[in-house]
Each structure stands twice: as structure tokens, then as C-alpha cells.
Amino acid sequence: MTIHAQTPGADLSRLRIDRDTRPPRPWLAWAVLAILIAAGVALYPRARAYIEERRAPEVEIAHATAVVVPTGGSAALPVLVASGYVVARHSSDVGVKTGGRLARIAFEEGTRVRKGAIIAEIEHADIAAQLEAARRAVAEAEAQLSQAQAAREEDVRALERQRTLAKDGITTTAALTAAEATAAVSAARVKSADAAIASARARVKVAEEALENTNVRAPFDGVVIKKRAEVGETVSPFGVAGQASREGGAIATIADLGELEVQTEVSENGVAKLTPAMPAEVKLQAYQDQIYNGRLRQIFPSADRSKSIVEVRVTILNPDTHVKPEMTASVTFQEPGATLARAAEATPAPTGPPLVLVPKRALTERNRQSFVWVVSANTATRRPVTLGAERLDQVEVRSGLSAGDAVILNPPATLTDRTLVRVKGA
User: Fold this and answer.
1) How confident is the model over 131-163, as pLDDT tens digits?
2) 97: buried, middle or exposed (CB in 10 Å: 19+, 13-18, 0-12)?
3) Buried b (16+ CB within 10 A) or exposed e, 140-176
């Protein structure tokens, strides 16, 4: 019943009973409470698991990898990795022998040249004129020699006549002496003419050499990998303003692309691991999927004490058109006797049991027993392992682990068996 407030002077006829009001239902509150309790009971395990998972230590994992070894072949694995650049074993900055203005260039980047071929010329009109003058001087000297020889023959005949007349007592001693002197002078003139010819021919050779020095020839068969000058530029054997001092008077860089190698540097601590003719694998940064066979060619006889490194050269045994000088490359040195990487078209070799490798950071040792922590379903389990040889930053696992198992790197000291963990990045 609803009773409206009465005010002085109000009409009592407005009072009435509200018969539409429903009676209260106390059981509804109990039903809602029961539903909330049931939901809490159902969600409690999940909430507890979520909280435990959030509290679990976060770990970094790595997967054990398998390396397939050819049957009957070497089980050699990488022992050292270094990076460097591809260079040509035979490379030359080709320059000029004499200064001048470039009149002709017969190459561009990528041009193949043959040994001795003229690849550029310097203006040489003055030298060509000098050569022509020297050749004409030779012709003049030869003409003078012919005249001297003819005069000498005439004087020799006159001397013979005087000698015959002297035997008959017809001529005088003075006439005979004069004839002898004249013949001697003629012979001297012939020798002088011979010397003049030799001198003129020497000047021709000098002029020819000077003319040849205006030609720039390829020192060996190769490819022009860098063009350093253009027609019309003035060049010098010692370089000109604006040209790097190391280049000198170079106008081109020629390389023999048939013999390419990787120039790399190895720390002094790693040099002891290298042996002569050591096999290696070469990868280019531009073509990571392609592996090239390599072989250690040279360990330089001196080190760089400021960097504590030693320069090493590795020959690329099977280069292709992808391999270009100055490319960034990595070299993985193999154990002696390792089988080199096979070409893509080669017949696959039969394989033996794979070797299982894990990073050294996954290993833990306790009481002279090595073990790793294996993660499965976010649970860490301690597993003893038997180790083999070390390979760079990895170690061979002979038993206790399978390829693909997830192991914890740098496991926390507080980790216990069957502990819940969170995988970093998962």
C-alpha cells in the first residue's frame, strides 16, 4: 500500500492502495551468490596458473642442431670463423710512365683486356715529330756515309797509283805522302759517318721509347674493375691534384678474376688453429645460400701489434659470376681433411648418423657431471648429457639429447627440476 504524504489542507480522497506492487523474492540473491561462487571455483585454477606463469623465471632457449656427416668421410666441423673481403690475387693499378693529357681510352668498367694491349694513349704529337726528325737524321747520316765511302775508295785508288809510280821512279815522295794522307782522312770520315749513323739510330730508339711510353698497356689478362680517368684529363706518374696519393698516376685497376680469394684477419689467439692448405667454406653476404669451396693459401709472416691480428688469404676454388672483388665474405675454416662443400649439381653423398650440437652456454656442470635444462610445455627438466669435441661456440652431445630439443641458455642458478619457466619472445 502506498500512502502519499498529507499536507495541511490536502484532499484525503487522494489516498489509495497500490495493489500492483509485487512481493520481494529473497531466493534471487542466493542464486546470484551461488553463480558467483561457482564461477570463482571454475576460474581459480586458471587464475592460479596464470599467476604462477607470470612469476616463473624468463629464460632464453636454443634448439639442438644436427650435422649430417658423409659416410666414410670426415666428421670435421668448423674450428674458426672470420670475415673479410673478396680480392683478386693478381690486381694492378695501371698508370702512365710519362705525364700528359689523355687522348684516348679504350676501356670501361668490365672490359676484358689482353696482356700487352693498349688501353689508353697520351697526346704525343711532339714526340712523334721528334721521332720523325731522328729517322731523317739517320737517313742523312747514311747518305753522308755513302759519300765518305765513295771518297775513300777514290782516295785509295789514287794512293795505289802513286805507289805504282813511286816504284817506277816516276812520282815524287811528296806526292806519295800526300796521297797517303788523303786516304787516311777519307777512312776517318767513313768512321765518323758510321758513328753519326749509330748516334742517329740511338736517338730514334729514344724517340720510339718516348712514344711507347705514351701508350698504357695491360700488364696481364684481366678485367677492368675500376676506371680512374677520362679523356682530356692530365695525368702524371706521381699523381695530380685531387687524386689519391696511393693511386699515383693510375688510370685503371685491372684484376685477374680467375684467381679470387678472401682477405681476412684472424686474432693472434686463433692463428694456432690454422694449418697450411686448410679447407674452408666461403659465403658471400650478398648470397648467403651459396657456399663456395676455399683453401687457406697464406698466413702472413707478420702481425699487426696494434690490433693483435694476422692477415690470412683464402683462395676461392670454385668462383662464379656472383663473386666480385670487394664483396663482404665470411670464411669458416674446417678441420684438416674435411670434405669440401659439394656443388649444387653434384650427386648427394651417402650420409651417416648426424652429430648433435648445442651452444656451450647451455651446459651446466655439477659434481663432474654435465647436464642441460630441456624445456617442454614451459617446464624445465634437468637432463644429463655426454659431451664430445668442442666446435667454435658449440659442443658435440654424444648422448642424452636429440636434435630439435629446446635447451636453456645461461640457466639461472636457482632453477630446479620440473620448474615452470617463461620462454623469452614466446
Assistant:
1) 999 999 999 989 998 998 898 888 889 888 888
2) middle
3) ebeebbeebbebbeebeebbeebeeeeeeeebeeeeb
What cell does 148 get? Answer: 765518305
The amino acid occupying position 101 is: R
Which H or E run includes 96?
Answer: none
The dihedrals phi and psi of 115, each to the nearest 5 degrees, come to: -60, 130
- Report the topology of domain 93-118+218-255: OB fold (Dihydrolipoamide Acetyltransferase, E2P) (2.40.50)
CATH of domain 78-89+259-334: 2.40.30.170
- Let me know the angle formed at the C-alpha of 334 by 353 and 323, rounded to the nearest 5 degrees: 115
pLDDT band of residue 372 (cuts 50, 70, 90) is: very high
342 C-beta neighbours (distance < 10 Å), count: 13
Domain range list for the chain: 59-72+352-423, 78-89+259-334, 93-118+218-255, 125-212
Who's near 370: CB < 8 A, 6+ residues apart? 363, 364, 384, 385, 386, 387
Q: The pTM is what? A: 0.56
pLDDT, tens digit, for every residue of 214-252?
Answer: 999 999 999 999 998 899 988 888 755 445 444 557 899
Q: How far apart are CA 1 and CA 7, in angstroms?
A: 19
- Among residues 109, 67, 9, 92, the alpha carbon closest in space to that of 339 is found at 67
The counts of H helices and E strands in the chain are 4, 25
Percent of the chain at pLDDT > 90 equals 33
Question: Under DSSP, is residue 25 helix (H, G, I), strand (E, B) or coil?
Answer: coil
User: Topology of 59-72+352-423 in CATH?
Assistant: 2.40.420
d(CA 355, CA 358): 10
At residue 10, the pLDDT reads 52
